[in-house]
Each structure stands twice: as structure tokens, then as C-alpha cells.
Please model this.
Amino acid sequence: MNEKKVIFAFKDIHIEVEGKEVVKGVSLEMREGEKHALMGPNGSGKSSLANALAGHPNYTITRGEAFINGKSLLEMDATERARAGLFLAFQYPLAIPGVTVANFLRSALKSKYNGDENILREFRKELNEKFQALDIDKVFATRYLNDGFSGGEKKRIEILQMAMLKPQVCLLDETDSGLDIDALRIVSKGINEFAPKDGAVLLVTHYQRMLNYVKPDKVHVMMAGQIVRSGGPELALQLEEQGYDWIEKEVMKAVEV
Amino acid sequence: MTTQTTILEKVKIGFRPLQPGEPDWIYRIRREAWDRYLEQPLPERVQNIWRYTAPESFLAKNIDALMNLYPVVPDGSNGKPYPVTPEYAAIGYNLDNRMTVTKMTPEISAKGVVFKDIYSALRENEGFAGRFLGKLVGASFGKFEALNLALWNTGFFLYIPDNTVIEKPILMNRHPGGQFTMGRLLVVVGRNSEATIIDDYAGECRLEDPAANSVVEIFVGDSSRVRYVNLQRLSSRCSSYITQRAQVEQNGSLYSIFGAMGSALSKVNAGTILNGKGADSRMYGVLFGDNGQHFDYHTMHHHKASESYSNIDFKVILKDKANSAYTGLIRIEKETANCEAYQENRNLLLNKGTRAESIPELEILADQVRCTHGATMGPIDPEMLFYLESRGVARVEAVKMIVGGFVEPTISQIPSDLQPVLRNLVLDKLGSEL
Ligand SMILES: Nc1ncnc2c1ncn2[C@@H]1O[C@H](COP(=O)(O)OP(=O)(O)OP(=O)(O)O)[C@@H](O)[C@H]1O
Ligand SMILES: [Mg+2]
Model:
């Protein structure tokens, strides 16, 4: 019997971007402490889903509902969603020139907690610890956020932000892509350590390699804007071996029936 | 219209008589400049430099009153409440065309630094100060520059001898007050010396006349390092016209920083002549316009010597219905070798209704040069806003961060003691309601 509290849930979500429906009714429920993996071919709608849930203005949710900790998400703007505990690690993190990583995090924390300076008391110390844990060179604190960072460096900094902002629900969109072998291990360790124990993590990924470190409780497969299959960790292994063809065939068959 | 104004002035207005105490040679320069002012037609609007601003805006409506603006005699008395605060090496005040006060710390006067109101400096030191007056911005420079040379009535003279390092900045407060101010700043720096000059225009003005017509001339000697900061934060009723020229000799360097926040209309023409081998000039601009403000900034880098280096980084932020025109001339003479000249102008348009122009003008006559220029203009990237908001940052804060970030790479290039001043000016201007 699963008695753990539902932390994050969405139901029958439809998403339009540029007048085109790219997500066509997906639902998911995540309970306290759970990690789920979301897989699926390129263009199947994974990032659209993550962005729309985080409140990106270009992705319109035309139908459905979503809840974080029982609170309805869709009436909130992006800032409010983040303050309610949602965090999106971007597939392609953007550069913010002229704003250093340290200043950005300081301002973000202050703003997130509505100007409460107390939140910053241990800021320096905490930042140092997390730089160390994620094996990020200290010079990055004074570099402009993501400006000229390599692909892998950006992904580390996304997880650093997660570690500092302490969200409850983490949507990690292909955080593993662009990481070298050692970085993958370090960042995975960081996710395990810093993702909230009482929260939920949704890992969007194409490969098993990160799932070797960050063990998912459930794996979902998205195709053409729908979740077509859900299973345990073994589903990811099966995809790694066999690709998506077999699922597609089964889905087609089911449709015909 | 153009010729009409000129003829009218010529017929009606003879130059004022010699003023008691005014040296002949100064009077002569004034009269000649006055003739040049009357002769020159208003600038035609065809060249880029006048394409974006009506020259009429800078004509004095009341020439008679101007004629009677005699040079401000320095206050002179000690014990006035204008101390040199610890952050500065010297402070000068121009107040309301009524008085000029200059104060130096004993340390820098002991080094032989001369810092005076310009009238006294010229009167007392024709042989030296007089050699430099009008040499970079003289009567043939342009109509309004001729007007200034004819009728200047206030300003400062600063001389820094050879091998003299002044660590703290020298601050000049310029408050036009109610009247049209014709100011001149003349700076002469010897060899192998170092100084930072803050030229700060602030205050209120009357509606009917332009607030300020200011000319700045800076001479940088061999291997000297000078930083010149021009802050323009006049009230939003003013219009201001500033012409600045500097000449940098061998291995000397000049960093010029322009912070423009004020005036309804602000036209600045700033230029550096790289006159000696290895001369180095950098210009940084942080301009922020709101309401209906109009900025018209022209920069010029004139490479006359080999291995000279110039770099321009101008950032413009506009909101409401503000607009800006930036034109930047780079001229590299034929007989030079290995000059480098860079120019970048970025414009951030915070809302529709703002307008920016950016025009590079390259006159590159030499063969061996490195030269790049670039301009961008556009609104805040909505993806950037989303990125910050997705971290829990409120919209207003996110805009502040992005605007702050936009100017930060420029601000971080200027002397560190001045950085907070410019940062705060930008944030103040941004305000709380967006
Ligand atoms: N901003 C946008 N404008 C236009 N089309 C978009 C936009 N964002 C996504 N799409 C389209 O929506 C569909 C889903 O894209 P999405 O990025 O969500 O896929 P994905 O599953 O994340 O793919 P990948 O694995 O390659 O990252 C694609 O057809 C894509 O072209
Ligand atoms: Mg994607």
C-alpha cells in the first residue's frame, strides 16, 4: 500500500505552441521521495511539458490541471510556481550576461523569499560547500551566468541552482546531456544529495547512463505528445537495448484494436 | 531660416565692450570667436552628426542676457562650507553662474598641482594656460563651440605636473542653476602622471534657454594615465550641449566615461586624438533615457600615430518614449601602422515607443589596422525573463537584473570607486514601477 503523500500531479495536460498542439493529454502523479524518468524520442513533447508546467509564456496549457502540494499550479505565474516549490533545470540554459553566478543566486534567493535577508546569512558558506560538492571551480562564482560556459558547465550550474534554491519538485530536462563521464557521476551524486528528500524529481533523459546513478522509481515513455507507457526501472533498460520501435508498434496495434 | 537668424544677429548684436579687469588677449579671442559664431550658419542636417537633433535647440533665446554673463569671479574667501571630503583630492564648484570655488588637499597643492577657476587661471598665467585655450575646441570647430569661446563665463583649469600621481579623484560640480551656463574645462597633464577627473553636471534650469553649453579640452602628456568621467544628470527640463576633445601623446592613455541620465535633450560630441605612438583611448558610455528624453551622442577616435589603440563601448537604455542617436567616427590616418580601433554600441529598448539609431563612420586610410564595430538594439529577451522568473525572481527584480547585467560589463571597466555611482544611477532611473 502506498500511503505517501502526492507532491506533484498533473492530469490530462494539453499544450499548444505556435498554434500547434504538441502535448495531447498527459497525466502523472508523483509521491513524496519519488523519482520518475520521462523518456521518448526527439520532438515527442518532453521539454514542452516541462516548460509549460514551469510557466513558460510560449507554451499554452489549453486543457488539464496540475497541483503542487495540493495547490493548483496553473493559475500561478512562473515566479509564483517557483516560489511554490517548482524548479526547472533547462535543456538549454540561457546566458544572463553581466550577472555573476553568485549575485544571481543571492538575488534569486532574496527575491524568492520576498526580500527576507535572513536567508542569506549562511550564503557564502553554503555556496562554497555546493561548489565543492559539484566540483565546480570557484571562479565560476564571479563569472556571468552561463555566459560562454560549455554545455557541461551549464548543466552543473543548473544543479547548483537547484541545490541552493531548495525546491520541492525538480523537473530536470536532459541534465545528463553534455556531461562527460566524470561529470555525469558528480552531477548525479549532486542530484541524489540535493534533490529534496520529501519532494519529487522528474528526470527527462534519453539514456540509461544517468539512471544508473539516479535510480528512478518509475519510467514513462512519451511519444507524439502522449505518455504511451509507464513501468519500473527495467523499462529504461529495455529501451536502451531495443529503442522505441517496439513500443510504437504496440501502440499502433492498440489503436487498431 | 538659417541665414535669417545669422543676419539678424549680425545686425543687432555687436560684441560687448571690454570688461574691467579682463586681459586684452582674452577679449581679442572672444571677439574673434563671436565673429566666427555670427558667420557660421546653423549646421546643416545632412551630416550624421546633426541628422538627429535640431541645431536651433541650442541657440540662446536671449543673447543680450548672455552678453552680460561676465566671467564668474571666484568666491575666494576661505572658510566657506565647501570642504574637500576624504574621497577626493580636490573639489571645485560652479554654482548658478554666481561663484566658483576650488579646494585642494595640501598634499596635492604641495605637488604643484594647479586647480583654479578658468578665468583666474588664464588671467594669471597667459603664458601657460593661454597656450591651450581653444586649441582642441576653437572657434572654427562649430557654431556653438564658437559661441562658447566668445561668451564662456565659468569653468575650471587643472594642471598636473610631470611625474605626479593623484590617487583620489578630482571632482568638479557644475550646477548651471537658473541661467544658461557657458562653461569651459581645460585640463593639462604633464608626462608620466596620473589623475581621475569627475565632471558632474547636475541641477535645475529654466525652460526658455538651453542650460549648458560646455567645452572640455584635455591634454594628456607622454605616458600619463588620465580618467575623465562626465556625469550628466541635469533636471529633465534642461537641454545640454557638451563638446569634449582630448589629445593623447606617446604611450599616454585616456579613459573617458560618459554617464547620461538627465536633460530633456542632451547632445554630446566627445573625441580623442591619438597623437603619439602607442596612445590609448577608451570610451565607455552608460546612457539611460526615459519619458521623452533625447540623447544624441557622437564619438570620435582620430588615430594620427602608429600603434595607437582605441575602444568604445556605449550602452544605451531607453524606456517610455525616449530616443537616442549614437554616431561613432573612427579615422585612421594613412601614415600610421598597426593601429587598433574598436567600437561597440548596444541599445536596450525597454518598451515600444522608444527609438535608437546607431551609426558607425569609418575613415580608414591606413593599410595595417585592426578595426571592428558592432551595434545591437532590441527589447529584453523574454527567454531571459522566463529563466529568472523560473527561479522565483519577481518580474520587477528580473528586469532590474537584466538591465543591470546589460550595463555591468561596461561599468566593470571603469575605476572601481566610481562603479557604485553609475550602478545606482541606472537603478534609480529604472525606478520601482516598470
Ligand atoms: N517554441 C517552439 N516553437 C515552435 N515549435 C516548438 C517550440 N517548442 C517546441 N516545439 C515543437 O514541439 C514539439 C515538441 O518539442 P519538444 O522540445 O517538447 O520535444 P522533446 O521531447 O523535448 O525533444 P528532444 O528530446 O529533442 O529534446 C516539436 O515538434 C517541436 O518542434
Ligand atoms: Mg527536449
